[in-house]
Design brief:
The protein is about 30% helix and about 25% strand. With about 350 residues, it is an alpha/beta fold. It folds into two domains: about 140 residues, Rossmann fold, CATH 3.40.50; about 180 residues, Dihydrodipicolinate Reductase, domain 2 (2-Layer Sandwich). The strands form two sheets. Strands 3-4-2-1-5-6-7 form a seven-stranded mixed β-sheet, sandwiched between helices. It has a six-stranded mixed β-sheet with strand order 9-8-10-13-12-11. The chain binds adenosine-2'-5'-diphosphate (A2P). The site of adenosine-2'-5'-diphosphate has 18 residues, from helix 1 and helix 5.
């Protein structure tokens, strides 16, 4: 395969930085790398495979064509620019919320619904799901395939990195301010200050009391799992963790499901690390995750009052599994299936 022209929009952000690192260590052959950020970062140089590449603004790309363009600079930039990149032949892998529920745009988690990339999408755009959705559907897949699910109820515990580099900064500065008693923590990136706090509000809160993050989790899970009627309800919570989202997931099946069978299915699922309640690794925690590309599942237990109910604790690196790695796995899928413009 010939080397590729790749653009990364949002290259200096939390996800963009992970993307560059992961592509650098992947087998993806790169001919040219175009790194795009806001005018604040224009002129910066970023090292990639031994060469320094300059950061530029997106307006300077209007005459360039790419094989793959990764967008991770927010919905407004994606809405305006992703179709233009797609029209010029790029496969756009968009990490924003802009196109995820568009019926012409595949929403892909390669471990779950790789088949939906079977042909090149009409508009050249593939959507990368929301971080909390990706780890959830990867853990649900083997169970949903084996057993009928009546409903799912979950709570998320989402890290500051979901709010980008500025989110991480706000948490760290706020925590230092509280510890040193020098200043009250600020809250620009989050609805209230996150340091030493827990915020049951991720994304816009709408009139019906549901947040955007909760709505995304429901709609995207249904689309990816191909279960439009799936009953799923969530409370999404921001917690003062730097990176790594956790989820407490309660699944109510239509019939009783033997616990050992559920464990066996999860243990066999590629990319899932199962934690056995009996060992010293009884459960995963976001700060101590070792394999950043896996989804970590522990505390699997039956509801003692209802044999149809099962709990699990699902943790993943939201910047990798929940964003950059999933995007790269989509790109690798497209390369393998020869779905890029000139292949
Ligand atoms: P910059 O670093 O110059 O602000 P995060 O999610 O970590 O906040 O990162 C957001 C990414 O989107 C950053 O790389 C940021 O660049 C980039 N970005 C923000 N505004 C624009 C814009 N108008 N055009 C291109 N990239 C942008």
């Amino acid at each position: 395969m010939s080397a590729l022209k790749i653009a990364i929009i949002g290259a200096t952000g939390a996800v963009g930085t992970e993307l560059i690192k992961l592509i650098e260590h992947s087998q993806i052959p790169v001919l040219r790398l175009r790194l795009i950020a806001s005018s604040r970062s224009a002129g910066r140089q970023i090292k990639f495979r031994g060469t320094s590449w300059p950061v530029d603004v997106i307006e300077n790309t209007s005459d360039a064509a790419f094989d793959i363009a990764f967008f991770s600079a927010g919905g407004a930039i994606s809405l305006k620019w992703a179709p233009r990149f797609g029209a010029k032949g790029a496969l756009v892998i968009d990490n924003s919320n802009a196109f995820r529920m568009n019926s012409e745009v595949p929403l892909i988690v390669p471990q779950v619904n790789a088949n939906t990339l079977a042909s090149r999408p009409n508009r050249g755009i593939v959507a990368n799901p929301n971080c909390s959705t990706i780890q959830l559907v990867r853990a649900l897949r083997p169970l949903a395939q084996a057993f009928a699910i009546r409903q799912i109820v979950l709570t998320t515990y989402q890290a500051a990195s979901g709010g980008g580099l500025r989110g991480i900064d706000e948490l760290l500065t706020g925590a230092r301010g509280v510890l040193d008693r020098t200043c009250e923590p600020t809250s620009e990136r989050f609805p209230v200050s996150l340091a030493f706090n827990v915020i049951p509000h991720v994304g816009e809160l709408s009139g019906d009391g549901v947040t955007l993050e909760e709505r995304k989790l429901v709609q995207e899970s249904r689309k990816i799992l191909g279960m439009p009627e799936l009953k799923l309800t969530a409370t999404c919570v921001r917690v003062p963790v730097i990176n790594g989202h956790s989820e407490a997931v309660y699944i109510e099946f239509s019939d009783c499901v033997p616990l050992n069978k559920a464990r066996e299915l999860l243990a066999r699922e590629p990319g899932i690390q199962l934690y056995d309640g009996a060992s010293c690794r009884a459960y995963p925690t976001p700060r101590l995750l070792e394999n950043a590309g896996d989804v970590h599942v522990g505390r699997i237990r039956a509801n003692p009052d209802d044999g149809r109910g099962l709990w699990m604790w699902v943790v993943a690196n939201n910047l990798q599994v929940g964003a950059a790695l999933n995007a790269i796995q989509i790109a690798e899928l497209a390369i393998t299936n020869r779905l890029l413009g000139e292949q």
